[in-house]
Amino acid sequence: MIEVHLGDITRLQVDVIVNAANRHLSGGGGVDGAIHRAAGPELSEACRAIGGCPVGEVRATPAFSLPAKRIYHTVGPVWRGGNLGEPELLSSCYRHCLSLARREGMKSIAFPAISCGVYDYPPELAVEIAVDQVQDHLDREAPPEQIIFCCFDARMADLYRLQLEAVVRR
């Protein structure tokens, strides 16, 4: 089941919260900073121990003070016009997170709008990729059973809802 949620991803009671991280996993602004603040100082220590994450990949940590079990840190691409592999890298973020969730037996996962903040990915394009990757995964694999697109504002939530409706009509 795919859902769109408007609100704070750090408050969701799911198995996995996905963090739109930077390459150093050092926390920052937006959802990354919010997750680091809500999870507590242990998250920064765990991320330092990992040492970083390449664009398009994922690294996992415990969720510490969050209501989730795990945090999957994925690094989305910075938008530079779309001709430098950005769509493939963003797709890879979703595929790696969903694959890891399946391998770890996680039943629910919440995604933010990866790369849509300071990385300037056009929201309409990012949402299309996100929904397509999730739907493709669900068509081929079983878990996770619940996938949430967690949006901080109503405009982004509307984009996800419209894209999900378009997928259903195909």
TrEMBL record:
Keyword match Hydrolase: yes
Annotated Pfam families: Macro (PF01661)
InterPro entries given in the database record: Macro_dom (IPR002589), Macro_dom-like (IPR043472)
SUPFAM superfamilies: Macro domain-like
Macro domain segment(s): 1-168
UniProt keyword terms in alphabetical order: Hydrolase
Keyword NADP: no
EC number: 3.5.1.-
GO terms assigned for molecular function: O-acetyl-ADP-ribose deacetylase activity
Protein name per the record: O-acetyl-ADP-ribose deacetylase
Organism of derivation: Microbulbifer aggregans
